[in-house]
Amino acid sequence: MNAVSKVIVGIAVAVLVVAVIVGGYLGGWWLNKDINNRQAHLNRTTFEQQTTYRDEMIRKIEDVRSIDAQIAENPDNAAELRAQRQAIVAIVCRDNTHINGGLDNDTASFVQEECA
Predict the structure, then answer these.
(1) What is the percentage of the chain residues whose pLDDT exceeds 70?
(2) Every domain of the chain and the residues it spans
(3) C-alpha angle 36/41/44, rounded to 5°?
(4) Neighbour tally for 23: CB within 10 Å
(5) Alpha-carbon separation of residue 84 from 5, 27, 47, 67, 113 (angstroms)
(6) pLDDT tens, position by position, 30-60
């Protein structure tokens, strides 16, 4: 084997080593991301998390009803109150997308009216 062949083989080995290192790093990063995504999905579907979403939706719906009463009592601030109401309704609708089971009748009717 002459000197040129040895240099070419050396460069090829160096490139292969770098490719294996970079591939291993990227593969590990991809697997770690996949594991985190799966864990996040499991966390969102646990009983405790589902209960938290439902409880938060009930609290937010009570806030919306309170704002509706404030709008009726004080129409001068209606624009600001409607904007606040709209933001809270958006949160309820977002939380509803995370719910896997059934909702109580009051919450379900609210979601059907406001999130449709």
Answers:
(1) 97
(2) 1-44, 47-116
(3) 125
(4) 10
(5) 74, 45, 30, 8, 18
(6) 777 877 877 777 766 678 888 889 999 999 9
